[in-house]
Structure formats: structure tokens, C-alpha cells
Amino acid sequence: MAEPLANAILPEGWLPAVEAINETGRSDIVLICEHASNHIPAEYARLGLDSSHLQRHIAWDIGAAEVTRALSKLLDAPAFLSSYSRLLIDLNRPLGSSGSIPVLSEDTGIPGNVGLDPEERSRRAEIMFAPFHDRVAAHLDDRAKQGRPTRIATIHSFTPVFLGIARPWHAGVLYDRAVDFGQAVLAGLRADSALNVAANEPYAISRDGDYAIPVHGDDRAIQAVLIEIRQDLLAGRSGIEEWAKRLATALPAQQKQNHS
After folding, report:
1. Which positions ≥6 away from 71 have C-beta within 8 Å?
2. How far apart are CA 75 and CA 78, in angstroms?
3. Distances from the Cα of 120 to the Cα of 13, 89, 96, 115, 207, angstroms
């Protein structure tokens, strides 16, 4: 595919690719929510989908944005949220991978993504993907220059059933190199014995299938985890607030242990 161009001009009426919250927050945690929005600009005509599909997981991670915003307030943490649907381009998939601009998501075909030319692929990358990750990278660069401690938590949600297979976990903590951080967050969440929380479920981190954890975390030697929360637990405000409070306790756990 064509490489994304620098300094892309934002089409009139389009949103900036990233919503940045509390960039001067004092926490050592940096929050990222790559699937925060189901927004698709009108020119794409919903990618040929019925509007009901835009309310499904294929279009965004339901509840993830609200948890991220609440958690940012509780931790006084900076947060970076996407402004566009993952159906246009997935911010947590490497450019050029099969999941980057999906033609099939779960069991649903995406007509507007079929047969795209290199120019359209590059356009989406330069307008939606590159500005988001450039903003995150610039923030991490600034923290490094200031000598600030940094850990990354990306916030996601998952479906209770995927292609007919039930997923029993309430949440998952995914990581690759950040074993200590990942295990600390798991231990924090498992303090509630009623929760079924697993490591690297409902899937595992891979460089072929993920972007933020390998690139912003592992490549920079920053401890980074991906938090997955089951969507049905985030269906209402009470669930969102409950999970934000849980994570606000679990995420700083390693830091507290290291300084105790």
C-alpha cells in the first residue's frame, strides 16, 4: 500500500483524528482508547452497511470511551481517544494488515472496504491513523525528555459471544513484554473473587495483530497492557463507573508495590 503522507489536510467538516484529554495529568499512566468512536463521515455512506451495524462491536468498542474518560479523571491521567470508527481504519492494527481496513468483520461483510485503491487506503491512513499515533508518540517523547515515569494502558471491550462461542471472562489483561505490570493489574482485579479475569484473553498480543502495545509500549521499553472488559458489563452508567473504579485501583498497584 502507499505510505501515508505527512501533514494531511483535514477535509471540511471532519473531526481531528484524536481527542486528547488531560495531557498534563500527573499520573504515570497514559490511557489510549483506539476504538472509542463509531463515527463514519457522511461521504462514506456507512460503508454500505445498515445503521444498526454501527451500534455493534464491529464499529467500535462499546463502553470503552466512557471508561477511559472516567478513569482519566480518577487517576488524573492523560488519555487519547479515537474519533473515527474502526471500520474505516483500525488504529490497533498495523497498516497493510488484513485487519487494518477490514472487508469482513466478525461475520459481516463491509461493502465500502472492498476493492479499495492505494490512494484511498493512504488517505485514511494519513487522516485517521497517522495523526492519532503521532500525537501519542509526541506525548511519550515529551514525557521521556522530562524524565517522567510512564506506563501505558489501552482500554477495550469485547463481545460476550464471538461467532457462536461464549466468552466467560469478565475482563482480560493482555501484555507481551510487560509481565510485571500485567500480573500486577491481574492481581488487583482478582482481589474481587467474584470476577473471572484472565491473562491474554480473549486473545493475545502480537506484532502482526496489534499496534499500540508493541509500538508505543514494548519498542520504547515502556510497560504497557491492554485491558479488555466484557461489553455487557458496560451497558449502563453504573457498570462504567464500577469498572473505572476497579481499574483506578488495579492500575497503580505495581507502582505502589515498587515504592513500598
Report:
1. 31, 77, 79, 155, 244, 247, 248, 251
2. 9
3. 18, 11, 13, 10, 24
Identify the residue whose cell numbers are 466467560. 168
**Going by DSSP bridges, is the β-strand pair 18-21/29-33 parallel, antiparallel, or unpaired?**
unpaired
Interhelix angle 237-250/179-189, rounded to 10 degrees, is 130
Residue in the structure block whose three cell numbers are 473515527: 84
Residue 174 to residue 228: CA distance in whole angstroms = 8
DSSP string covering 49-70? --GGGGGSTTTS-TTHHHHHHH
For 117-168, the pLDDT digits (tens) are 999 999 999 999 999 999 999 999 999 999 999 999 999 999 999 888 899 9
Instruction: Output the pTM of the full model.
Output: 0.94
Kindly state the DSSP code that residue 126 receives in the 8-state scheme: I
- Report whether 201 contacts 161 (CB < 8 A): no
Per-position DSSP letters for 188-240, written without gaps between them? HHTTSTT--EEET-SS---TTT-SHIIIIIGGGT-EEEEEEEEGGGGSSHHHH
